[in-house]
Amino acid sequence: MQSKRGRPRNVETQKSILTASYDLLLEHGFGAVTVEKIAERAQVSKATIYKWWPNKAAVVMDGFLSASIARLPVPDTGSVLSDILIHATNLTRFLTSREGKIITELIGEGQLDSGVSEAYRTRYFHPRRLEARLLMERGIERGELKKNLDIELSTDLIYGPIFYRLLVTGDPLDDSYVQQLVMNAFEGISLE
Questions:
Q1: Pick from 54, 80, 122, 161: most CB atoms within 10 A?
Q2: Spatial CA neighbour of 26 closest among 38, 11, 13
């Protein structure tokens, strides 16, 4: 989150900090990353990092998101079913990838550190929910979904089981599961 005070961020310095935080996260895990190590790797002062981010969790989440955002594009195929299926499948593939496993680590850390949980909720999960909302709103506008659809509940219905398997049961998360999940959910939310 950009600070309102002082000079604007230098794009190259910001990129260096975000890259350093992401690389350290992949190499050592969240618990071993420190602002001091990020500053050393990025060749900046800790003060520069703290000027732009309130804490380690925020800079690490921004580094993680900046590196991973291209892997989760928001589809627009003209069909809400196809869009949600692509979106949920891409999310699942990402969450089960080496980089995506960082999310489970951050969720675990967030149980003990409210700064971490706030960072992953605001910087990762809320944007994913907004993407799902956009997809469903388009489906309502095109007459593919019920006009009175509870979008928040439908988002939980479709995406919640993915996180349940990821974080609780450990059951397989693959394309087949996601397709079955989305198809079953759409039996209740689509007009057909």
A1: 80
A2: 38
The span from the CA of 137 to the CA of 88, in Å, is 16
Structural domains present in the chain: 11-56 (1.10.10.60), 80-187 (1.10.357.10)
* SS3 per-residue string spanning the chain: CCCCCCCCCCHHHHHHHHHHHHHHHHHHCHHHCCHHHHHHHHCCCHHHHHHHCCCHHHHHHHHHHHHHHHHCCCCCCCCHHHHHHHHHHHHHHHHCCCCCHHHHHHHHHHCCCHHHHHHHHHHHHHHHHHHHHHHHHHHHHCCCECCCCCHHHHHHHHHHHHHHHHHHHCCCCCHHHHHHHHHHHHHHHECC
The span from the CA of 95 to the CA of 18, in Å, is: 20
Distance separating alpha carbons of residues 177 and 162, to the nearest angstrom: 9
Cα angle 105, 97, 71; round to 5: 105
Which residues in the chain land under pLDDT 70?
A: 1-9, 70, 192
Half-sphere exposure of 167 toward its Cβ, with a 13 Å CA cutoff? 16
| pLDDT tens per residue across span 129-172 | 999 999 999 999 999 999 999 999 999 999 999 999 999 999 99
